[in-house]
Amino acid sequence: MPVRRPRAAWTAGLIISGLAASVFTGSPAQAVVGQTANDSFTFTAKLDIGGQRSCSAALVEKEWLITAASCFAENPAQSLKVPAGAPRLSTTATIGRTDLSRGGGSVVDVVELVPRGDRDVVMARLAKPAEGVAPLAIGFNPLLQGEDVWASGYGRTGDEWVPDRLHYGKFAVGAVKNTSVGVTSKDGVALCQGDTGGPAFRLLGGRAELVGVNSQSWQGGCLGSDSAETRKDALDTRVDDIAGWIQSVSSRTLLSRRDWKEVAYTASGYFTTSEADRKRHMDLFVVWNDGTASIFQGSDNADPKTPFTAEYKVPAPPGSSWQYARAIAAGNFAGSGSDGLFVRWKDAEVTEYGHLDLKGVHDERMLAHGIDKDHPTSFWANARLVTVGAYSGDGRRDDVLILWENGSTSLQADIHTKKLDGHVQLSEAQKSWENAAEISAGEFTGKKTSDLLIRWKDGETSIFPGVDAKGYHGRLKIRDAESPWKNARTLTTGSYTNSDNRVNDVLISWNNGNLGFYPDVDAEGTHTGIELVG
């Protein structure tokens, strides 16, 4: 059977190893096949475990690595069991440095291990986030026999005990089993000692996607191995079938790294994917008090404790124009599946952005002029709260509901096509509606059109079912007056856990900086609350 590489000799220094068999060498003339990674696959990490072992790993979130449990097992020849918590031996990870003889990247301590238990995999938390390195995406699609995958690592090569360079090579997927997958060498590459724990990944249009972790190898052609051994196949640990677990573990510390007292506005939508891609849930767009902005990418799993998997900073330096926003809501205005924003600015200008993604906002259209010398007044200066939902019956989230300063409400239907010509008055001015603190659209009652959720200043919260152009059709109370919801800073609704994209989850940032989550809110109320931060 293949050799479990950490079983190999212990030395007074490191157990060193390399990625390709007799392939990845410093001299192209001597190399059989394979390549050194020149600033590619920087998500690959090198682990120094107590000065006694060396392994590879992959960054899957700024603060989390995935690697092999056998790297940390006391005697991997007998058991792969690894206790949860701090590693037994002091461990450091070098990340984002494909040439170890050069600077750059990060060198960070590993402070916590989270073992899987049923296979040769462990998650490793870093003492601080590794900045400047794009984490490796997690693959959810099943491995297919015959498909090509790549492997990377800092292990021994064909003629180097301690290589300075990251190496990578191609393998073909063989037999796929419950927790492991056989991989067959292509072009003569092999996995050597020190590549244990390194990633196996697909390349899809230049995008790498994690599918496995290097576990065991025959090591044919690796320096120091039996010269009679020519086999270069390997056995990887499958992770495509535990992708949800990886996301849940690696997302545990994501939200707590931010100060939620500094949030100014939140809006939910499909910004990093489309609504048609039902594997991933809604993202969260956040504008912070200093004018910067972030997108928290929605999870691919349904764990309500980890609804987001990554934070991306949207191009917007401190002091950017976002500090002048006074109301923000997200919707599917352009009808393309990915969402954009409706923004009312401080000067009363109203803007539609057809799309928002990691590069920023796109397809800007001014719907109403701001107040200036040519436009000395604007009734949009009186728009106090806005939300976007599917209120016109076509199922598309492109209708803007406005609560005005005088307590009246109106609807602007299909703003992408009609701009601001689809005005419908929903209710006349009502003194009591001046006590509304926040409004948000959702799908809580199963009606054909969106519901309206209102949080009142005293903490009472109401749902108005199936709002449409004819107005309101009843009112349901889901939180009593003087409930803790009176301490909410921001509130947004989204589809963060549902496989059917139903918008009935409520996310609240509290005045004390905590972050609360209420999944599956319905006409009966809020059934459970989860503190995501705090």
UniProtKB/TrEMBL annotation:
<keyword id="KW-0732">Signal</keyword>
<protein>
    <recommendedName>
        <fullName>Peptidase S1 domain-containing protein</fullName>
    </recommendedName>
</protein>
<dbReference type="InterPro" id="IPR043504">
    <property type="entry name" value="Peptidase_S1_PA_chymotrypsin"/>
</dbReference>
<keyword id="KW-1015">Disulfide bond</keyword>
<dbReference type="InterPro" id="IPR001254">
    <property type="entry name" value="Trypsin_dom"/>
</dbReference>
<dbReference type="Pfam" id="PF00089">
    <property type="entry name" value="Trypsin"/>
</dbReference>
<dbReference type="InterPro" id="IPR001314">
    <property type="entry name" value="Peptidase_S1A"/>
</dbReference>
<feature type="signal peptide">
    <location>
        <begin position="1"/>
        <end position="31"/>
    </location>
</feature>
<feature type="domain" description="Peptidase S1">
    <location>
        <begin position="15"/>
        <end position="251"/>
    </location>
</feature>
<dbReference type="InterPro" id="IPR050430">
    <property type="entry name" value="Peptidase_S1"/>
</dbReference>
<dbReference type="InterPro" id="IPR009003">
    <property type="entry name" value="Peptidase_S1_PA"/>
</dbReference>
<comment type="similarity">
    <text>Belongs to the peptidase S1 family.</text>
</comment>
